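Task: sequence design from structure.
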């Protein structure tokens, strides 16, 4: 994998699609942030570079092969047999001149009748800033903006971020004016005001690279000498530059280049921006492990709040003004990390990040697999048809948790019955791995829900099917979405090998799992709401673009349930009658609209509930219940791994309609 890195980085500077070669309407450039136009890079060993690749090449025209010099003769012969358009390029020829010549050759081969874009094409030097600068440089070439200074050796992350932010603001402003059909003279007169307005509401996809390994995992996986050499990574390293020999650098620099490649690849695909962050402080993993262990025994809201505060304190070095600014303008986060960044609270907020905005995770261990998965980017899919959900019941009926789970899913089926034309739920008894495999093969679901116990086997988080732990499910034709309705199947504090991550290797596009043991009835409530909103969105699309957006709505809007489930007293009060003759929970739902700020969703939920309690003359008592015994924000301990942001709930063409001029 290390030997492939120079070539992988080079490929990021080639066109990702034919649209990169020609002038494109500005509104389309903005709309492309929803399309995820990845580079189609096929990473293979030389021995596998043969006719067996035909099935991988059927959807794409083979363009160019890049290889180490020692493989040139063999790679050239194999590439010619497979019909690659351009001559095979060895590492020693990777340069600004070569990438410019290949852009020209690709244009002349595929679009000879169309005018070429002006502007130079050059290779990125600063790998540490590439997640910011490379997407901007590609946009700037389309827009005719200068970019040479962005790759200067002394460029600061602050200056780079400022330029990239201004570029995204200009793009949003011009796209809006184009959609509105403004004439050139109107654009000149309205641009500054439009740009100010777009700067205030700008939203772009953001990718983050967050290195760091849990100390508990490092002690198991690496000897003392490796641990000694593996120091923390800074966010910015000016000497971290691209070269054809970058794979010959020390291990920690090779690993850094691999993470930077994954983040940059994602940022380029989404036409957004990315940032490298410093390594997670070891103490943050230690506190996280303590937090996750706390849920294994009877736990209290007060203790969880203290542990979350300690976690924020331990992770404080991660925060920079650029990170805060990026998150404030993010439509969603893609976090390449083994650490659940979404549990941290941004300075100035009172609720963790995963309440503020959608967060998707790409695990970094093993790093080789991360790069392989990132390069092999499957196309976005649309669930804009009748969705079949298979609920695999893996807990014996004799188990109380199994009984509650089955009852919860029966309620879910009843709640979505009116939307049966858009979503159906099938429950199946799967008390053995073979039964689970057969049920998936029979029903071929779009979404697989596995209702099971989670368990730790050494440092591995497994699923219990029947009475046997499993890490490898061996499912053929793995559904795109897998929901693990089970306890602690995605813990992060100890660096456990988790079934939630392993299912991505088995072919799932997105896996929803839990970091902690969750209470079965609360989990059932979340799952029911997830299915109801999903059925409604497919029937009447428009509110949620992706399944990640929909899940985020379910997760953060469950704050009131988390609070009212804090104690028997709160649960009883929730059903009491208000002065308006409604139950407390119904009154809350009617009042909360427009009053809950996502960065403060728990604080604002408490405030609205407190106002209702005041009207009943119970304000002091209810607020005291919020603190003693307190509540646990259990909904925030779910993580969505993989690519849930690429699972659309309507067709991409439908999503692009609002961006078209005159719409």
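Answer:
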């Amino acid at each position: 994998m290390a030997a492939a890195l120079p070539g992988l980085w080079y490929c990021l500077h080639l066109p990702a699609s034919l649209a990169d070669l020609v002038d494109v309407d500005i509104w389309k450039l903005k709309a492309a942030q929803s399309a995820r136009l990845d580079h189609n890079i096929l990473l293979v060993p030389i021995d596998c570079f043969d006719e067996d690749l035909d099935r991988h090449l059927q959807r794409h025209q083979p363009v160019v092969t890049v290889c180490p010099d020692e493989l040139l003769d063999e790679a050239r012969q194999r590439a010619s047999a497979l019909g690659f358009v351009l001559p095979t390029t060895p590492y020693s020829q990777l340069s600004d001149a070569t990438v410019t010549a290949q852009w020209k050759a690709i244009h002349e081969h595929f679009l000879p009748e169309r005018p070429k874009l002006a502007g130079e094409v050059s290779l990125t030097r600063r790998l540490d800033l590439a997640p910011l600068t490379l997407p901007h440089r590609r946009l700037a070439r389309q827009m005719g903006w200068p970019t040479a200074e962005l790759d200067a050796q002394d460029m600061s992350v602050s200056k780079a971020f400022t330029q990239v932010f201004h570029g995204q603001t200009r793009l949003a402003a011009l796209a809006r004016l184009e959609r509105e059909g403004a004439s050139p003279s109107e654009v000149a007169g309205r641009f500054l005001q439009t740009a100010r307005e777009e700067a205030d509401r700008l939203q772009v996809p953001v990718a983050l690279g967050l290195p760091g390994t849990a100390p508990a995992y490092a002690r198991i996986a690496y000897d003392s000498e490796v641990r000694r050499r593996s120091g923390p990574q800074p966010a910015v390293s000016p000497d971290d530059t691209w070269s054809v020999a970058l794979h010959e650098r020390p291990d920690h620099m090779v690993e850094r280049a691999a993470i930077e490649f994954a983040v940059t690849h994602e940022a380029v695909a989404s036409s957004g921006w990315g940032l490298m962050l410093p390594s997670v402080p070891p103490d943050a993993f230690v506190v996280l492990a303590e937090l996750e262990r706390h849920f294994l025994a009877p736990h209290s809201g007060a203790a969880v709040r203290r542990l979350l505060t300690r976690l924020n304190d331990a992770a404080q070095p991660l925060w920079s003004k650029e990170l805060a600014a990026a998150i404030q303008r993010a439509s969603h986060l893609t976090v390449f990390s083994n650490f659940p960044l979404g549990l941290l609270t941004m300075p100035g907020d009172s609720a963790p990040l995963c309440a503020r905005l959608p967060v998707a995770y790409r695990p970094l261990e093993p790093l080789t697999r991360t790069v392989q998965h990132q390069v092999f980017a499957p196309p976005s899919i649309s669930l804009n048809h009748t969705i079949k959900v298979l609920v695999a019941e893996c807990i014996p009926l004799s188990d109380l948790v199994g009984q509650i789970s089955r009852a919860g899913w029966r309620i879910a089926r009843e709640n979505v019955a009116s939307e049966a034309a858009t979503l159906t739920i099938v429950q199946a008894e799967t008390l053995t791995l073979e039964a689970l495999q057969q049920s998936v093969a029979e029903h071929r679901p779009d979404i697989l829900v596995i209702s099971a116990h989670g368990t730790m086997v050494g440092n591995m988080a497994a699923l219990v099917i029947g009475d046997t732990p499993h890490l490898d499910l061996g499912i053929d034709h793995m559904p795109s979405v897998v929901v693990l309705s089970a306890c602690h199947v995605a813990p992060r504090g100890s660096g456990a090998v988790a079934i939630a991550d392993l299912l991505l290797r088995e072919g799932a596009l997105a896996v929803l799992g839990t970091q902690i043991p969750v209470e079965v009835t609360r989990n059932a409530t979340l799952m029911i709401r997830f299915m109801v909103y999903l059925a409604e969105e497919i029937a009447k699309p428009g509110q949620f673009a992706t399944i990640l957006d929909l899940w985020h709505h379910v997760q953060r809007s469950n704050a009131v349930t988390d609070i009212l489930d804090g104690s028997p007293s709160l649960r009883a009060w929730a059903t009491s009658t208000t002065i308006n003759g409604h139950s407390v929970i119904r009154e809350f739902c009617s009042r909360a609209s427009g009053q809950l700020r996502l960065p403060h969703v728990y604080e604002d939920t408490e405030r609205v509930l407190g106002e209702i309690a005041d009207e009943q003359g119970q304000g002091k008592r209810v607020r005291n219940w919020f603190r003693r015994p307190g509540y646990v924000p259990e909904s925030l301990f779910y993580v969505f791994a993989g690519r849930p942001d690429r699972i659309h709930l309507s067709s991409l063409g439908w999503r692009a309609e609002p961006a078209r001029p005159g719409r």
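Residues 3 and 168 are 34 Å apart (CA to CA).
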